Automatic annotation (TrEMBL):
Transmembrane segments: none annotated. The keyword Cytoplasm does not apply. Gene3D superfamilies: AhpD-like. It comes from the Bacteria. This is 4-carboxymuconolactone decarboxylase. It comes from Kribbella aluminosa. Its EC number is 4.1.1.44.
Length: 138
């Protein structure tokens, strides 16, 4: 099977749509992730933007805050995704989630994925909140 041509007009349209969404919510962290993939896996960088944001994130059924809560819960539950979790905590703040809502999502995660995953997620959140002068969380 031939992989899709990421330079085709259709793929470029998906990419542009995804980049629009990403730029509206990201706050600047995602380009570094995409750039880090450029010299080894440009197709992966393309699909993260085109599929992840152009197709999935732009679906109308959920608001950005709801999407981010789902994303935070999944990344915290998976574990080992701390760099991605950091990007999405920042994005969550950018779309209007409060630090307390983010912390609550990780407390809720503990019941389903375990305390170690929740504690790891809280540690990442604490770093982001400290960088943005959002501590203490009340």
């Amino acid at each position: 099977m031939t992989p899709p041509d990421i330079n085709s007009p259709e793929e470029q349209a998906r990419y542009r749509r995804g980049l629009e969404v990403l730029n509206a919510i990201d706050g600047g962290g995602a380009p570094a992730v995409m750039d880090s993939l450029g010299d080894i896996a440009p197709a992966l960088a393309h699909h993260v933007v085109a599929f992840g944001f152009g197709d999935l994130y732009s679906r109308p059924a959920l608001e950005p805050k709801q999407r981010q809560l789902v994303t935070l819960g999944i990344l915290a539950s998976l574990g080992g995704c701390e760099p991605e979790l950091e990007v999405h905590i920042k994005t969550s703040l950018n779309v209007g989630l409060t630090p307390a809502e983010i912390v609550e999502s990780f407390i809720h995660t503990a019941g389903y994925a375990g305390f170690p995953r929740a504690i790891n997620a809280i540690a990442v959140a604490k770093k982001v909140f400290a960088d943005r002068d959002l501590l203490p969380v009340t």
